Fold this protein.
Amino acid sequence: MSVQVWTWILVGITFALYFGIAIWARAGSTKEFYVAGGGVSPLANGMATAADWMSAASFISMAGLISFMGYDGSVFLMGWTGGYVLLALLLAPYLRKFGKFTVPDFIGDRYYSNTARTVAVVCALLVSFTYVAGQMRGVGIVFSQFLQVDINIGVVIGMSVVLVFAFLGGMKGITYTQVAQYCVLIFAFMVPAFFISMQMTGNPIPQLGMGGKVEGGAYLLDKLDALHTELGFSEYTSGTKSTWDVFAITMALMAGTAGLPHVIVRFFTVPKVKDARKSAGLALLFIAILYTTAPAVAVFARTNLIETVKDAEYSGIPEWFKNWENTGLIAWADKNNDGKIQYVKGDAVQGKPVYTEERGVNGERIVSNPTADANELYVDRDIMVLANPEIANLPNWVVALVAAGGLAAALSTAAGLLLVISTSISHDLIKKQLKPDISEKGELLAARIAIFVAIIIAGLFGIYPPGFVAAVVALAFGLGAASFFPAILLGIFDKRMNKEGAIAGMVVGISLMLFYMIRYKTGLIGVMEPLPAENWWFGTSPEGFGTIAMGVNLVVSLVVSRLTPAPPVNVQEIVESIRIPSGAGEASGH
């Protein structure tokens, strides 16, 4: 059977499973909608957390970025994995003991202020919408290639699917759907990795295969280094980023992870604090399976890509290349008219390829925006994992399986983010502030309406994203680090921290991060182009600037809190109690 038929079959089966779970786990109360009723087992919650955590950025884009960035791509591995450990050990148990549904709810009550709650809601919406843009873009990429539809139509299909199980089941439906999605995505990621590792090195374990020998006796990484230098790139295993920027990006990803509202809320879905700790440990184990495999997949994909296109005649190029060319995610501009693909250092096109209606003499699609650089090949980083099985000439069912896995990864995280957006509006804004006497039925309706509106906006972000999936997600982590992390950390460990300090810190931190992101990464459409890297402050990339913004937030919070009145005694007692196992009450399970 063809790849497309296999894709329809596997995607159809997995979607039917997701829909069935959503109908079975339909939420009937706000507690079920927000935290799945608080009765999820640690094992199920660990798998759901892993699926929530491993978004399209992890499945689709992380290995793609590493394959192009080489050593520099390790910042994503260190930052996201280290951040999860930071969250699981430093914050999650205490937040669970505090017993609130959402991060804005924690901040509103801990800082005894609806103003603080409102600022936290705004921050949650900014972080979540930035993050969900990457997920919807990932969905569009998968659909565009494997179901042969336009990327924008793929985004709309993805929106519709997420809407069903998020709208019906809330956190209850999302949790059990994510358990299924974890099984799908991890199987889909590992199967081609096993195949390709065995094919290239004779070792079926990808983590070992990456350091193994290939045909001819050379080590795989040495071979890739040689291919890179031959084409004019820097060695794959050497870094080009400054030590400071590597640290800044890693720290921003770590702190942003610990402040991500859609991951934190998962620790409220289990019955006891000790269950939160168990599910955190299990989730780390489930996450490690993919994260330790991603560098190997990046090496396999990069090596196979270079060997396939290096000085190849376009007329004899494999079919996968032309299929991806039709999606606009790969392009060849024959600048010297020799019919061969010349892949060297430099940009083949200005930005993303813009195709004309014409075809070249070799049958290639003509781009209207080539550069003067010698490089003739443009490859979107986000296709590397998806195209990897095709490049390695694996069976069609494996190619289709990867498509199903990519969709599972993107949809699971998108659903979690949309729930954060929904609860921020219905619970933290409407219930806690605008209409405190709203009935449970009314609050549930408001939550579902908020999800519907949020998914429309998320779709627009997916259609008009500011960059590669993982790059967009990295900005979301920077926003999380700049806004939530200091407020949560100080809220748990500094009983002198007051509402004035927290509010000032969050406002200054997220404003600074937004300014830098717009000025140096995304620009303003039709008004302002982003400034180049030579203008970065202290040599800090936009992805790493969350570290500086977070530091400013911390300083502002501490200074303002010491210059203003201390929080009420009862609030200080709460801060003491959430760090002490005994006397923590019903929420601790004692």
In short: The beta strands are 330-332, 355-359, 365-367, 377-379.
